[in-house]
Amino acid sequence: MQFCKLIFSLSAIATAWTAPLDQIVLTDDDGSPLPLVIWHGLGDNYKADGLHSVGDLAAAVNPGTYVYYIHLSDDAGADKTATFWGDLNTQLAQVCADLAADPILSSAPAINALGFSQGGQFLRGYVERCNSPPVSTLVTFGAQHNGIAEFQGCAEGDWLCLGWEGILKSQTWSGFVQTKLVPAQYFKNAEDLGSYLEYSNFLADINNERKEKNGTYGQNMRGLEKFVMYLFDEDETVVPKWSGWFEEYNVTSGKRTRLQDRDMYVEDWLGLRWLDEQDRLEFRNVSGGHMHLMDEVLKDAFQRYFSKRVDVPEKEEKLGHLSL
After folding, report:
1. What is the model's pLDDT at position 22?
2. What confidence tens digit (pLDDT) does each residue in 75-108 have?
3. What mean pLDDT, rounded, does the chain reach?
4. Is there a contact between 218 and 234 (Cβ–Cβ < 8 Å)?
5. Of these residues, 40, 71, 145, 290, which one is catalytic?
6. Which of 24, 71, 83, 282 has the lowest tally of Cβ within 10 angstroms?
7. How far apart are the first and last CA of the chain?
8. DSSP three-state, residue 37
């Protein structure tokens, strides 16, 4: 009986979403919440209990939310491996195709997106490169939007990890590492920007840092209703932690450059300045170490940013335009 009710509910939502866009509005009142896609971080997998508890909480705060857990394999182990190993451009293309093929997501006028750790910059890459279905609100926790200057350390005695760590550090800019080891593809050394701009397989492109800019990236980012970046105050995993706010930080000199003082903001390579001027860009911080999240923080985020609902008015004279 419960299964039948769920199918009926999703069917009704999909029917409402397939109405013409000019018949759909986002409202704080009754209606169906936008679907939510979640991309997990390094070393996690889409079937993890902790991740699903987050999805359950999102659905509890905003009843009726359809939650989709992004994954690169139906097998949990292979999905976890893909967080370390693979070409990010290929992986992102697969995610774009998967989201576009999902019957609920593809029929929605927009979706919300939640990215944890590296999943944050990957979802931003989705917005820039694909955005079909389009993202309304993007929220990231502990992301590395401006890359990492140090690789995460390995546990003592983890010889496999230590072996890969050695390759990461000694051959960071080799073609093999840049197309096979995921963390290397968002590595950025402020003291060696030349190598980064020339060899980075992923981050330099989605940050539009090379001489030739991709105008679609900024155009798609300007379509966001909100872009919210959470930073962990005691984060010692992401180096530098300020990367979560697109800040430049030189780990040797200790010099920190705010996003608003960077060329990428002033020249608006990604639409971030425009979003900021429209009050659509938010910088938030939470106490604790990397991904040490309390339910209260998540509840607040879900209420603030994912509470808009889809309403399809019955009377033609009341029809409005999609407001994102």
Report:
1. 40
2. 999 999 999 999 999 999 999 999 999 999 999 9
3. 88
4. no
5. 290
6. 282
7. 36
8. strand
**Tens of pLDDT, residues 220-246:** 999 999 999 999 999 999 999 999 999
256 beta partners:
249
pTM for this model (two decimals): 0.88
162-186 exposure pattern, b = at least 16 Cβ within 10 A, e = fewer = eebbeebeeebbeeebbbbbbbbbb
Note if 290 is an active site residue. Answer: yes
Integer-rounded Cα Rg, in Å, for the chain is 20
Q: What is the pLDDT of residues 26-68, one digit of tens each?
A: 656 667 899 999 999 999 999 999 999 999 999 999 999 999 9
Q: Considering the candidates 235, 243, 268, 311, report the single residue annotated as catalytic.
A: 235
268 is catalytic: no
The answer to whether 179 and 201 are in contact (CB under 8 A) is: yes
Task: Give one word for 98, left, alpha or beta, with left for phi > 0 and alpha for psi -120 to 50.
Answer: alpha
Identify whether 117 is a catalytic site residue.
Answer: yes
From the list 40, 44, 71, 117, the catalytic residue is: 117
Tokens 């409402």 appear where? 16
